[in-house]
Amino acid sequence: MAQRRLPTARTIDPRDAPSLRWGILGPGYIAAEMVAALQQGTGQQVVAVGGRSAERAAAFATQHGIPASGDQDWLLAQDVDAIYVASPHSAHHEQALAAIAAGRSVLVEKAFTRNAGEAVEVLEAARHAGVSVAEAMWSRFLPGYDVVRQAVEQGVLGELRSVTADHGQLLWPNGPARLAEPSLAGGALLDLGVYPIHLAAMLLPKVEAIHAVGARTDLGVDEQEVVTLAGAGGVLATCQASMSAKSPTTAVIAGTQARLELAGDFYRPTTIRLVAPDGDVLDTYEPEEREHGLRYEAVALARAIAAGEQETPELPWSETLRVMRIMDDVRAQLGVVLPGE
Fold first, then answer.
1. Which of 110, 273, 292, 295 is catalytic?
2. 110 flagged as catalytic
3. Helix-then-strand count for the chain, H and E
4. What residues form the membrane-spanning segments (predicted)?
5. Which domains does the chain have, with CATH numbers?
């Protein structure tokens, strides 16, 4: 093999990124996580939060000490450089377009939109407006994912043969409405399956075939699925997602000379082991910090904005569109159609 050690992450310290004034649209759980990540791990400023519920916005403001309103237009009128869209999938398209129309750059929570058609509209609007946009798929901005990316590119594993990842959480039927309701673009794929699919897409530059099997709920959204992606040269990726059972949420990236084992939860800052075919552990990556991982995606957008770039190198628009098209294909095979599609 080319080397028997893991590469060093090239990720820049989030505290060194240009400081932006951020507004947050959608005062929920993930928005609270982002606020903590930005306030405790970067020089970014969160100056306003808005949503469709005055009561929720007020509670969020009290908890985090940030001016808030239940009026989306109020947020878009504030002096901010970028908007983080943290609402359910069903609102991403509309809210991202509104932010872009207001001249704001946008970080849109994953899944970027409900489908590829909506994604194209958002990205074309951003292109014409001259603002920056990125999908908030935080895993792809983490230092550990850069270690994985380099290890595969440099041949540390030999010839890549397979990628296996699972993401199962016990979130249905007694979980949040955003996962159960078709009107909120619910289902396992857009919320959970997007993680293993993004990992596979990062490592398979071209997907030549997609096969999916799964089960739907009584409301018609996907409860769980297994997706196989066939890459060039016979490389296979198996991506499993479920919202009705907790799985180990691990990943294995296997080559002819070694494999990478990503401990659960594989999509977070986690332990990565380089393992020989005989089981010997050749090297181990441990993240410097396991908290505040959301900051990496935000500072990547901040750097892009400061550099006059419309997309981030870690997750360019073409990759966001490719993942959305893969998921469109999967939903078509499962017979999942969301309202308005």
1. 110
2. yes
3. 11, 14
4. none
5. 16-138 (3.40.50.720), 140-334 (3.30.360.10)
